[in-house]
Amino acid sequence: MSRYSHVRSYQSLITPFYADQVGSLLRSEKLKAARLQKQNNEITTEQLIQIQRQETRLHVEQQKLAGLTVITDGEYSRAWWHFDFLEGLNGVDGYTPEVPLNFKGTKPKTHSIRITDKISFNPNHPFLRDFEFLSSLLDPTQHVAKQTIPSPNMLFLRGKNVAECYQDNEGKFISDLVQTYQDAIKAFYDKGCRYLQLDDTSWATFFSEEGVSGLKELGYSTEKLLAIFEYLLNESIKNKPEDMLITMHICRGNFRSTYFGSGGYEAAAETIFGRLKVDGLFLEYDDERSGGFDPLKYVTRSDLFIVLGLITSKSPELEPKEYIKSRIQEATKHIPLEQLRLSPQCGFASTEEGNILTEQEQWNKLKHVVEIAEEVWG
């Protein structure tokens, strides 16, 4: 019997979503001010949550006005797209490393995570509460609530097995990590989540010589780490119910309209496109950093949808519609049109600082995605 068999049936998802989004949205000035007040102990946690919810209500309506079927909470309770979720797991703590991540032209705040004890999913994880609130704002016959969390590969690569219980026992670490994510997926499903996106910058490690050199310093060959990533992802999602979509977004970094990596998908294409069991893949394709569409030839499943991130979230200018349509047509040399989707290449605020554009320009971008999708797919 499935571990999900006791869960009552929900209405099927309204699919496909030819116009989609990655998830994060620019924080309003009111929300930024409230987060600063909380840091300075000028307001309580509950007061901050109330302000987050007020802003979420407003921005959910803006997403609806843009024409989106898929709605997110903008990741308004987070400072980072990944650390907040990972630090909410048992056995994971945040800390300040000596060296920040190196983005092209700028540096984010210095922060990271480490594993301090046996890892497991916290059944009281605050993201569950956030998802319930988002769901309460939507009519499920009209819109779908999308939850975003970092991929298990992010904890494997960023956290490393430094806890004493995992010393010299990578197999135990991987096993616990898989169980943690299986439990997380079940918990979100139990709260009504039917669309979960796993965000993952770790694949970009394989896309450049610089990234591969870093792997060697960690003691991994490309082949070994590809195999670990494939196993972690597929095992983590293997128990997902049939009425739940799980997708993965692959990114090369997104901070204040900058990035940390470049390179096409070729080096990991056979694994990403041919062996992962996700329902869909969100791919960066907004500029030359991501290479061409040739790696899509490794897609072997007719039920795998590919979301082309052709609209950039890094700048306010609207891409010419005919140019985007021509790029979609170019991709059909490798993938049938009915398997393709359209979205921005990343979120608008992977960290609370946000990319360099205004909220109105952000809404214009999302409306642009919807309009182009309607013209292409009808």
From TrEMBL:
PANTHER family, per the entry: METHIONINE SYNTHASE (PTHR43844:SF1)
SUPFAM superfamilies associated with the record? UROD/MetE-like
The enzyme's E.C. designation:
2.1.1.14
Q: Does the keyword Transferase apply?
A: yes
Organism the protein comes from? Vibrio plantisponsor
Q: Which GO terms describe its biological process?
A: methylation
Name the UniProt record assigns to this protein: 5-methyltetrahydropteroyltriglutamate--homocysteine S-methyltransferase
Which residue intervals define the domain Cobalamin-independent methionine synthase MetE C-terminal/archaeal in the entry?
A: 173-374
Kindly list the GO molecular function terms attached to this UniProt entry: 5-methyltetrahydropteroyltriglutamate-homocysteine S-methyltransferase activity
A Pfam family annotated for this UniProt entry: Meth_synt_2
Q: Which UniProt keywords apply?
A: Methyltransferase, Transferase
